[in-house]
Write a structure and sequence with these properties.
Mean pLDDT: 93
Strand content: 15-25%
Number of domains: 2
Low-confidence stretches: none
Shape: elongated
Radius of gyration: 17 Å
Distance between the termini: 37 Å
Largest sheet: 3 strands, antiparallel
Number of helices: 3
Strand order of the largest sheet: 1-2-3
């Protein structure tokens, strides 16, 4: 089993604070996130889009394996994911 690591740091209050996320591979290295990037249109990433990207990537790769198992090779697989969480519950 290959273990991957990621981390997040948050400073300040929930609404006025700021945070960063990083991955072991450094694909994300202190990438900014905030209340604004999560619940409004602020600069930076947010957990929902990271979950969406992970699901889209996993789906595309698995589909490629299935297509190859049937004797074909896909020229391109493009997957998009839409992730929403109940903001009212998160803010309580």
């Amino acid at each position: 089993m290959n273990v991957r690591r990621a981390s997040a740091t948050w400073k300040g209050t929930g609404k006025e604070g700021t945070g960063t996320v990083s991955t072991q591979s450094k694909a994300l290295d202190n990438m900014q996130f905030s209340y604004g990037s999560r619940f409004e249109e602020g600069v930076g990433t947010n957990p929902e889009e990271l979950v969406g990207a992970a699901h889209a990537g996993c789906f595309s790769m698995k589909l490629s394996f299935l297509i190859v198992a049937d004797g074909f090779v896909a020229e391109s697989i493009n997957t998009s994911a839409k992730v929403t969480l109940d903001q009212e519950k998160l803010l309580r």
